[in-house]
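BUG: 3D viewer hangs when loading the predicted structure for this chain

Environment: internal workstation, default settings.
Expected: structure renders.
Actual: progress bar stalls at 90%.

Input used:
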Amino acid sequence: MTALPELLIDGPRRAELTLALAHGAGAPMDSRFMTAIARGIAAAGIRVVRFEFPYMAVRRAGGGKRPPDCQPVLLDCWRRVIGHLGPERLAIGGKSMGGRMASLIADETGVRALVCLGYPFHAPGKADRPRTAHLGELKTPTLICQGTRDAMGGRESVAGYRLSPAIRIHWLEDGNHDLVPRKASGRTGGENWAEAIAAMTGFLRGL
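Structure tokens produced before the viewer hung:
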């Protein structure tokens, strides 16, 4: 039996709602992005729990730059975390791949909500091959914070996909896959991250 992954917890231990966040394919749970998002949401009184998929835990232990685990392993890891925390007062989500894996089991596990950051609607340059079949039928209340020029799902490409009415998208102006805008936009990455945090906390408080 696979052990429960190590959990990194921010915010009040007895909060009314917990948000579990998984990392993207390339960066760990304590990356600058994940830390900023987790601490920003925790500051609003929501408990935030981060964890790592098995391949990332092996990387951390000195196992080299391993590729992501296969989808069944990633989903099994998510199910173990949800089972440990309990779905009743739990929202799930994450960055890119972590959020996409959460979206695949949100309805199945009965969690309160889903929150995704930089959702990988399609591979870069392959907007005609979307990964959105399940998003058309999703029933779990969902917020996706997405950069308008995300190479894996910008405003123009996403507008052509069929998405469930349970999904709300909050667009971050000129943001890339990490929600960071170009300097010429007049905005900063910090401003976009703060806007995403505000959108997420507002959404979660409204549940």
